[in-house]
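2024-03-11 09:14:02 DEBUG pipeline.ingest accepted 1 chain
2024-03-11 09:14:02 DEBUG pipeline.ingest length=124
2024-03-11 09:14:03 DEBUG pipeline.predict start
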Amino acid sequence: MGIEDYSGGPGAQQTGVLVVTTNDVPGYRVERVIGEVFGLTVRSRHLGSQIGAGLKSMIGGELKGLTKTLVETRNQAMERLIEAAKARGGNAVLMMRFDVTEAADVGTEVCAYGTAVVITPAAS
């Protein structure tokens, strides 16, 4: 897998929603604050990856199967976040964050959350 498989979610060009981790977007003005939005998913690891991870942890190194699963899980949570923002009329999400927790020892819960807003280009 290449770097594109391990980096960031979809861009604004693909989704119509800009997602940033900052409080504002340079060159844009917040016209309306919609409120908190989130995307949530819980994924379990299959038995093969758990066994492979257990063996790999004894010799060290990256757990590539688990890394791939976590990237896919984060991307799914972010896609759900974007859909929530769009459904409420937003075209941007400010202060996006991820929260990752273990879910009852059977999987990983990933929540992407932020503030949905409507932004417009600032007058020059």
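2024-03-11 09:14:41 DEBUG pipeline.report The beta strands are 18-19, 28-44, 92-103, 107-121.
2024-03-11 09:14:41 DEBUG pipeline.predict end
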